[in-house]
Amino acid sequence: MSAILNHAIRRHVGATAARNMSGTAAVAGEHSGGYKVWKRLSFFVAVPAVGLCMLNAYLKHQEEHDKPRPEFIKYDYLRRREKRFPWGEGNKSLFHNPHVNALPDGYEH
Q1: Helix or strand or coil: residue 106?
Q2: What is the pLDDT of residue 86?
Q3: Residues in contact with 19: Cβ distance below 8 Å, sequence separation at least 6, in sequence order
Q4: By the 8 A CB rule, do 41 and 49 touch?
Q5: Residue 99 has what pLDDT?
Q6: What is the structure's pLDDT at 46?
Q7: What distance in Å separates the CA atoms of residue 92 and residue 86, rounded to the nearest whole number?
Q8: From the CB of residue 33, how many other CB atoms can be counted at a distance below 10 Å?
């Protein structure tokens, strides 16, 4: 019984090894089939993943777009201007967004 089982296992391992040697994996000097796998992965995995990330970002933006901005509370330790910014009127940062960023005296109207 063990001889039959041993023979079946050796046949299976030999057939598996022969199949793996003729697959699309790059073998020394053989580069013919590997690009097809990456091309398919790019089109069927990467492009849909980027699309899902774009959809997620858009939906999160729409969700937060409807919320009112929080009430301004003037804290002494926030928005301190010891020195004026070297551009514009000197009170707004370089990437100032009037809808989100408050000035030291409150939001812009």
Answers
A1: strand
A2: 92
A3: none
A4: no
A5: 83
A6: 95
A7: 10
A8: 13
Contact 98, 106 (CB under 8 A): no
Q: Are 106 and 74 in contact (CB under 8 A)?
A: yes
In this prediction, residue 28 carries a pLDDT of 60
In Å, how far from its chain's centre is CA 84?
A: 37
**Cα–Cα distance measured from residue 103 to residue 92, given in angstroms and rounded to the nearest whole number:** 7
Read off the tokens for 73.
């509370």
For residue 84, the one-letter residue type is R
The pLDDT value given to residue 101: 86
Question: How many Å apart are CA 101 and CA 61, to the nearest integer?
Answer: 17
Tally of CA atoms within 13 A in the half-sphere of 55 that contains its CB: 6
pTM, rounded to two decimals: 0.45
DSSP-derived secondary structure letter, 73: -
Place of tokens 């919320």: 67
The DSSP output letter for 102 is P
Domain boundaries, the chain: 1-66
Q: Which residues pair with 27 in a beta bridge?
A: 30
Residues of the chain with pLDDT under 70: 14-32
